Structures are given as C-alpha cells and as structure tokens.
C-alpha cells in the first residue's frame, strides 16, 4: 500500500502541483521538496488509518448484526421445531385414537356379523339327527313325538295333531302330569321309508339356517327359482283311520334311533300318497308317493 502511495505522489509531483502559499500567491512545488512530500504522506497515512477504523467498525457492526440474526434465526427455528414436534405428537395421538376407534368399529361389525349369522330361520328335519344345508347349524337333535295313533276306542280320537321334536337332553319337572294329555315317540310304520325302516323309531333335528325364512313345499323335490334347498324327502303322516295327525317331511335317507325297533305303535308314520278327486289329476297322479322339500331364502 505504501509503495502505491509513493508512486502516486511521485507521478503527481512529476506533473507539477500548484500550491497556494498565500491568498493571491502561487508557486510551483518541486518533486524533491522533502517537507511537502512528508506532509502529504502523513495526511495519506492518517486517511488510511481513519478508513481502517471505519472498515473495522463496519465489520464489527456487520458481525454483531449477523450474530444477532443467527441467534434470532436459531431461536425461531427451535420454536418452529418444537411446534412441529408438538403437532406431530398431536397427530400421532389422533392417529392412535382413530386406530382404536377403527378397531372398535371392526369388533362391533364382527359382533354384528356374528349376531346376524346366528339369526335366521329354523326348521325341523324329520328323520335325521343333523343338518346339512349350506350355512345351516344344528340347534339340537332329538326324538320325533306326537299323540298316540289310537287308544282302542273311537271315543278317544281328539287331542293335538301336530308333531314335536323333543330334545335329546330335556330339563324335567318334578311334578306329575294329569292323564288327559300325553306325548309319545314316533316310529316308521311303513317299509317304504327305506330298507330296515319298519318299526324303527324316528329321530329329528332342529336346524338354524342363515336365511330369513324357510318353507316346506309338498309335491316337489326341488326348490323354486331363488330358493335354496335344505333337504328333501317324502311326505308322511298318521293313518287316515287313526287319531288326527299333521304332515311332516321325512328325509329321503332316514336315520333310526338306536335300540328303538320294538313296534310300540305309539305315534305311527306312513308315506303319504295322492288321491284324485277334488285334487286334479293331472297334474297329480293317484296313489303316487308325495315328494317334499324344505327350502330357505
């Protein structure tokens, strides 16, 4: 820096500087005047020192502002980071709550689905100990029962006509009943039910279908369109000259109650046939066995 100043001053002196020595007097300054040169050099050094101080002051001010800005930025950044962390924690908590809610809803839906599946229509499958329909569950198995077919006197022809499926595991009272109403087990009293069926006792099963309704259709072995088959078989009832009896659909492959072949002649069942007259033939045919089918929907 000093060498540059010397060169600058030398160049200036070489050109010749006019310095005012008085109010109206001027004289030519010589390049080799030591006093003038030293004076100018001292002023220049003073100016440089002043500029250095200004630059240093500006640097200090800039550094102070930069440090202040960095501190403020760091503080703001930390505040924003903490805010974001709290927001993430809130979102995580909300997400956990939503997951718990979804799990509860799923459990509720599962319970509702199971409850819905447990609901449905029931029907008795006569002549069987189990259920085989799609989506069908066994409620219980038991014994086909009803009124005794004949008491030996035409006077005793009253009483109920319907049949019941008594459960295999009953709950018994401790009080004796009267003598006016009894329920008996039933037996196949017709060899047409199948090989070895004569005099065998008749089982039954109460079935629960996952559909909303069931119906027994006589005269068919298949269901109408839109209905689902539960089982099919042959229509049966008591004899026309015995006590009143209801029609039931005996499975086409009937089972027997073990040890029940004793020909007790209590509630007896026979294959039902068509009888033309008021019943139009065709479409029906006299004396043919009557199909039956249990359908659900």
Which labels suit this protein?
single chain, 297 residues, disordered N terminus, Ca-dependent_lectin, alpha+beta, 24% strand, signal
- Uncertain runs are 1-27
Q: Give the structural class.
A: alpha+beta
What's the shape? rod-shaped
Query: Would you tell me the overall average pLDDT?
Result: 82
- Residue fraction in strands: 15-25%
Biggest sheet details = 10 strands, mixed
Q: How many β strands by DSSP?
A: 12
How many H/I helices?
A: 2
Give the end-to-end Cα distance, rounded to a whole number of Å.
108 Å
The helix/strand order is: HEEHEEEEEEEEEE
CA-based gyration radius: 57 Å
Estimated helix fraction: 25-40%
Structural write-up:
By secondary structure, this protein is an alpha+beta fold. The protein contains 2 helices and 12 strands. It has helices spanning 2-15, 34-118, and strands at residues 17-20, 26-29, 121-126, 136-146, 164-167, 184-188, 203-209, 214-218, 228-237, 248-251, 267-271, 291-296. The strands form 2 sheets. Strands 3, 4, 5, 6, 7, 8, 9, 10, 11 and 12 form a 10-stranded mixed β-sheet that branches. A hairpin with a 5-residue loop joins strand 1 (17-20) and strand 2 (26-29). The longest helix is centred in the N-terminal third of the chain and has 85 residues, at 34-118. It is rod-shaped, with a radius of gyration of 57 Å. The two termini are 108 Å apart. The model is unreliable at 1-27 (pLDDT under 50). Residues 1-16 form the signal peptide. Keywords: Signal. InterPro entries: Ca-dependent_lectin.
